[in-house]
Amino acid sequence: MRKIIKSDESQVVREGLTYKVNGDNKKLAESLCQEQNSICAYTETYLGRTDKKDIEHFNPTLKGTSADDYNNWFLVKAQWNSEKASKWTNYQPILLPTSADFEERIVYFQGEYLAASQTDMEALNLIRLLKLDDYELVTERHAYLENLKDTLAFSGKDPQQYIDDLLVTRPSLVYFIRAVQEELNVKVDFDLIKHK
Questions:
Q1: Which value, in Å, is the radius of gyration of the alpha carbons in the chain?
Q2: What pLDDT, on the 0 to 100 scale, is given for residue 86?
Q3: Which pLDDT does position 50 carry in this prediction?
Q4: Cβ-contact 58, 19 below 8 angstroms
Q5: Beta carbons within 10 angstroms of residue 16's beta carbon
Q6: Is 21 exposed, middle or buried (0-12, 13-18, 19+ CB in 10 A)?
Q7: Is residue 177 within 8 Å of 188, Cβ to Cβ?
Q8: Angle 140-142-147 (CA atoms, 0-180°, nearest 5)?
Q9: Total Cβ atoms within 10 A of residue 36
Q10: Does residue 114 sit in helix, strand or coil?
Q11: pLDDT given at position 85
């Protein structure tokens, strides 16, 4: 998982979109999906047409209150939302996905996300709550990176050019963004898609 950047330029902010409890939130979900580049905020897997997607309220106690806003909303795969929903109070205090020091406190190491310090309860709690250490997700991430590296070697391109080309031609094949950036030492630049 990487730090989530919330922008004042977001369509959600510009248009004053709100979450409607028991209402139609399709436009909000579409806006979040677009700004997240169709990537689940938590798992960093691709959000395809057949995936059930949820607008996740990171702090569920804010849902339906005036404090529930854009900074609390993330688009995620429904499975991760449903598994997290009832466990919030068990994992406090917690690191916010938008924290400026997120990537210093939760590090990527050999395919896994770990707390940089075993005394950082906020980071440890986030890893546990969001199941960033889920065995199947870690296995999927490893397999994806292994396949990507094999294909990259076969392509004969340097890593940055390969990722740039893949983003332009088949963006749905670029996910696990933080792992890709750290293992291949590249920048995954979704602006290439927006400007093509």
A1: 17
A2: 85
A3: 92
A4: no
A5: 7
A6: exposed
A7: yes
A8: 95
A9: 18
A10: strand
A11: 80
Q: Is 145 exposed, middle or buried (0-12, 13-18, 19+ CB in 10 A)?
A: middle
Residue 139's CB: how many other CB atoms inside 10 A?
11
Q: Write the pLDDT tens digit of every residue in 25-71.
A: 999 999 999 999 999 999 999 999 999 999 999 999 999 999 999 99
Structure tokens at 171: 């963006």
* pTM exceeding the 0.90 threshold for the entire prediction: yes
Provide the residue count of the chain. 196
3-state DSSP helix/strand/coil % of the chain, to nearest 5:
45, 10, 45
Nearest CA to 179 out of 48, 4, 45, 81 is that of: 45
Residue for token pair 């076969």 = 154
pLDDT for the residue 110? 86
Tokens matching residue 61: 């106690």
- Scored b (16 or more CB within 10 A) or e, 155-188 reads eeeebeebbbebbeeebeebbbbbbbebbbebeb
Write out residues in the chain with pLDDT < 50, as ranges: none
> Can you count the helices (H) and strands (E) in the chain?
9, 4
71/5 Cα distance (integer angstroms): 9
